[in-house]
Amino acid sequence: MPPAIDWICAHNAEGPAPARGQRFGEDQESAGIRLSSEISAPAREQIFRESRESQRIHGFLAPGHVSVITGSRIFEPLARKYGLPFVVAGFEGKEILAAIAALVKLQGRGRVLNMYPSAVTEEGNREAQERVMRFFEPCDAAWRGLGVIAGSGRKLRKEYEAFDAGGAELMEDVGGNPACRCAQVLMGRIRPRECPLFGKVCTPQTPQGACMVSTEGSCFSCWQSEGL
């Protein structure tokens, strides 16, 4: 069976956290700041552990936009611990294909390979990281299909909480159609077509879960690639 490749992504609803931190730092009169869960250490560990249990995950494409901030080094502890490769990928088709080819070659080896060096470094954007630490602090947050993970989110620090536009919602995993199996798709436990709603009730015009809502979602991509 060929190796299954899955994405490991930040659950970040409104753009990179450092960008919001920068706007906040420059203009504290602009209320409406809401920071969603990031790919913090507790979340990375549980997401990886849950995905690994499916036995269908053989490697991870690490998201380039997140890695610009965090740096590629952030994935090394998981790669070493579980003996699986992480490849930081760009967003062009040829960049993604090259990253997938690298994952196949690295199968079974706990390594991190940065194939997006034009934007990603090992240490990441230190200034952006410092801004996040300045304005935000860890908090519990809900992750789709995983429930609440302690310390996996970020919320505004107490001195800035007057600008919070919805941090309490981080504890809510808002569900839709109870038959939607988006959580299992995200964990690599099933493929999009194995969801009973795919192509029937759930289409890009009538999405039932995040995997079909987002143009980057697995179900949306499957729909497009099969020309449905």
TrEMBL record:
Annotated family: Belongs to the HypD family.
Keywords: Iron, Metal-binding
GO function terms (MF aspect): 4 iron, 4 sulfur cluster binding; carbon monoxide binding; iron ion binding
PANTHER family the UniProt entry points to: HYDROGENASE MATURATION FACTOR HYPD, HYDROGENASE PROTEIN ASSEMBLY PROTEIN HYPD
GO biological process: protein maturation
Organism: Candidatus Eisenbergiella stercorigallinarum
Protein name as annotated: Hydrogenase formation protein HypD
Domain of life: Bacteria
